[in-house]
Amino acid sequence: MLLVRHAVRTVLVLVSLVVLSVGAPAQQPRNEPGKFDFYVLALSWSPSYCASLQERATERPTDPQCAGRPFGFVVHGLWPQYERGFPSFCQKPAPRIGRSIADNMLDLMPSPRLVYYEWNRHGTCSGLTAQDYFDAVRKARAAVKLPAEFAGLAKPQMVTPAEVSAAFRKANPALPAGALAVACDTTRLTEVRVCLGKDFSFRDCPDVVSHACSRDKIAMPAVSGG
User: From CA 120, how far away is CA 97, in angstroms rounded?
Assistant: First the structure.
């Protein structure tokens, strides 16, 4: 009798496991090129990056982003994303990109090293060729209008994350609050992250927004370096 009960219990457990496995959603492939849900366009506030670099460096920074003409918002990257989390380094080694591609991106991403790194870490997850990926970077950047009040910022400002978000939404009336996240370090605005569908239309991204800056006030160093 005990053996029968044990056998019945075992069968019930196995049936339950089968039902659960059938009903569970298929797990999304991870780090498979082209298998992602949307993009994040990360726009870095260049003066904050250069200030941080200066603080860490023992010598004057040699990054061309900080040594040439002053920059405001620049493209940090275009990042394929899952609804939760993101893929990275999807091809090892990454296909090499020509210097001409990097040179052609310097108006948006003013550092060859940044261009190469973003391709290796994020571009390889797009499922696109290098040329098509950087064409996508341009399309994504063209989809987002920068707030006029931050252009050529001559004096440092203290702002709230909400003020930065509001400025971007005013400049882009179709941009919903749930598609944008303001990022910061301990004291400064670091970047603004805008979520875009694969067609470069704005779309909500709760996981990205949940990691937004929570500080009351953050600094925006001046574009002029003042």
Answer: 10
* Angle in degrees, CA 177, 179, 180, rounded to 5: 75
Show me where the domains of the chain are located.
Answer: 38-220
Fold category of 38-220 in CATH: Ribonuclease Rh; Chain A (3.90.730)
Q: Residue 139 carries which DSSP code?
A: H
Q: Nearest Cα to 168, choosing from 201, 193, 186?
A: 193
CB 223 within 8 A of CB 72: yes
Collapsing DSSP to helix, strand or coil, 189 comes out as strand
Strands 189-196, 73-81: parallel, antiparallel or unpaired by DSSP?
unpaired
Q: Could you read off the pLDDT tens digit of each residue along the chain, which spans 226 residues? A: 444 444 435 434 443 443 344 444 455 668 899 999 999 999 999 999 999 988 876 555 578 888 767 899 999 999 999 999 999 999 999 999 999 999 999 999 999 999 999 999 999 999 999 999 999 999 999 999 999 999 989 999 999 999 999 999 999 999 999 999 999 999 999 999 999 999 999 999 999 999 999 999 999 999 975 4
Strands (E), the chain: 38-45, 73-81, 157-159, 180-184, 189-196, 218-220
pTM of the complete model: 0.85
C-alpha separations of 196 from 40, 136, 143, 148 in Å: 6, 11, 9, 21
